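Researcher: Structure for this, please.
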Amino acid sequence: MSTSFELAATIRQDLGKGATRRLRKQDMVPAVIYGAGIDPVSITLTHNQLLNSTANEAFFSHILSIDIEGKKENVIIKALQRHPAKPILMHADFLRVNLKEKLKVHVPIHFIGEDDSPGVNQGGVVTHDLVDVEVECLPKDLPEFVTVDVSALEIGESLHLSDIKLPKGMILVALTQGENNDLQVAAVQANRAAQADSDESEGEEEESGE
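Model: Predicted structure, token format:
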């Protein structure tokens, strides 16, 4: 993964709702780091630095480095609480990463080949049923995204999770949970609007012929 993220943090000693409100007024974000059999650590992050990082899609599927007053932690983001109406981050949860242990992370799907799809060229429309998938792999193998190629799809055809080609050592978590979890990822469907226009035109032609 070519993209890297490093955040600077300080240990948060003053806990509680009042302290949290004061932090947010100072454009800071309360957060916690947990996992790996180590006690959780409450930290504070600069709001703008975190907000700018989250604007990059890769932030949510990368190993992040958090510098806590000179000590660096490898983590992934597990939860991010946002304000319901404003572009404000309220709280973040980070999970420590053991580089020798597999982890499960949701990564985005990038669809390619839509312009080459026979179904699209015949007037069909590609539908995206999933926007991300959960993968399990070692941290060093964690992908920035998963690619799904729809270039061979005809109208009425679809792709499922089992059709996604992944590198060796990486698995889709859903497929380990039984056949019923082999979800549809994308499909090419007939363009109903175009079909309706075509049917209407044919109707008009029949009327004029009468």
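Researcher: Any notable elements?
Model: The domain at 104-195 is CATH 2.170.120.20 (RNA Polymerase Alpha Subunit; Chain A, domain 2). The radius of gyration is 24 Å.
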